[in-house]
User: Which sequence fits this backbone?
């Protein structure tokens, strides 16, 4: 018994304090930058009234940071492979401070808001920094749960939806000052407390070559499609749900933000559950089941049920399904991607997930403007989720690590 114990080193199964310190710091950073990334959405109703925006213009305003942050994950993920999270996390957090503060002078001009929203997209790129960092510190048997815990940082959307309008009641500029201050503190702490894994392999080839290599993997695009449905659905609801609840159900901005925050909170809770389940069941099966549930709830919501209780239950169960799927997809990434390419693949997959969140708000706004109904949008979501459910079960459960 003693001999066997000596032959099985504990670190393989038991991550040390450094692993958990990096996980905690990465999760906090992801949360804060996600809050910053989503600062415009909870206030979009106010901007619509103040600037006289149409539904499409309002949707575009909240979608621009999503687009930029999503596409930005591709180079940021590759740069993280090269330079490590120790540099990239504090640097990206510090760069996010500028557009957060620029929201103050820009708030009375639609053109200026679009420009600042473009810069604000920087905050959405930290996802591609944290995944390879956490992935490197945890062994495969515990990686799903660890990545799920990191993914809880998307709760920054919930924090933004709940606290931003409430803080704004005490001063129009106060939410931006609070978030900027938090980012200053975090950037300083991240520079001190985040460390790359000692065994991290640093690629020597060019950024273009690494992205091309990751892009040639079939599994990169299969995972991208699944993540675009799961996480894209979360982002889309995070940025558009307050508008939907205010427009369709007549809620006040505060009530709409509160319910939207509840939706986001459920996705946050179920993301690590998706990772935990994926440590025990094949992540493709978890993804398939979760997307199937989301598809069913989207169909229910397409029939415009009363908000209490049917609509609320449908939206919350849909949130659980999308949250579980977003956790299980990245558990699958960690299984089938070489460690040296995790950042590059994560960047592409994360970008596609964010793009999946960019399109639906525009579609929902355009459909409502044309048809005065959101039903078509929910039916499209159910179709996509069902397609992902079938593909995850039929193809992804047979994928092996050779890509």
Assistant:
């Amino acid at each position: 018994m003693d001999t066997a114990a000596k032959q099985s080193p504990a670190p393989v199964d038991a991550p040390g304090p450094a692993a958990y310190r990096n996980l905690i710091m990465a999760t906090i950073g992801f949360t804060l930058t996600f809050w910053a990334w989503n600062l415009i959405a909870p206030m979009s109703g106010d901007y619509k009234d103040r600037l006289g925006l149409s539904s499409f213009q309002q949707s575009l305003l909240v979608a621009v940071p999503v687009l930029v942050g999503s596409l930005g994950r591709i180079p940021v993920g590759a740069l993280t492979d090269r330079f490590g999270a120790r540099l990239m996390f504090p640097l990206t957090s510090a760069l996010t401070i500028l557009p957060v503060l620029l929201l103050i002078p820009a708030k009375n001009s639609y053109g200026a808001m679009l420009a600042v929203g473009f810069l604000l997209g920087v905050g959405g790129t930290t996802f591609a920094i944290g995944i390879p960092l956490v992935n490197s510190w945890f062994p495969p048997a515990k990686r799903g749960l660890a990545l799920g815990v990191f993914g809880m940082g998307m709760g920054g959307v919930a924090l933004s939806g709940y606290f931003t309008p409430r803080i704004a009641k005490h001063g129009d500029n106060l939410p931006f000052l609070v978030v900027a201050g938090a980012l200053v503190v975090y950037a300083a702490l991240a520079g001190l407390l985040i460390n790359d894994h000692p065994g991290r392999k640093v690629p020597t080839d060019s950024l273009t070559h690494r992205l091309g290599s990751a892009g040639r993997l079939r599994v990169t695009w299969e995972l991208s499609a699944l993540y675009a449905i799961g996480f894209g659905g979360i982002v889309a609801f995070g940025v558009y749900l307050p508008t939907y609840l205010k427009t369709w159900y007549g809620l006040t901005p505060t009530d709409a933000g509160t319910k939207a925050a509840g939706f986001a909170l459920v996705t946050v809770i179920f993301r690590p559950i998706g990772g935990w389940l994926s440590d025990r069941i094949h992540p493709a099966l978890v993804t398939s089941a979760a997307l199937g549930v989301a598809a069913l709830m989207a169909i229910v919501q397409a029939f415009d049920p009363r908000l209490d209780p049917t609509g609320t239950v449908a939206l919350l169960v849909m949130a659980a399904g999308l949250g579980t799927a977003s956790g299980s997809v990245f558990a699958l990434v960690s299984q089938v991607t070489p460690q040296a390419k995790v950042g590059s693949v994560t960047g592409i997959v994360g970008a596609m997930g964010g793009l999946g969140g960019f399109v639906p708000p525009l579609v929902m706004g355009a459909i409502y403007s044309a048809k005065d109904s959101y039903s078509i949008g929910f039916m499209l979501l159910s179709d996509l989720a069902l397609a992902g459910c079938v593909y995850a079960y039929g193809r992804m459960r047979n994928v092996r690590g050779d890509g």
User: Anything to note?
Assistant: Residues 43 and 165 are 7 Å apart (CA to CA). Residues 218-249 form the longest helix (32 residues).
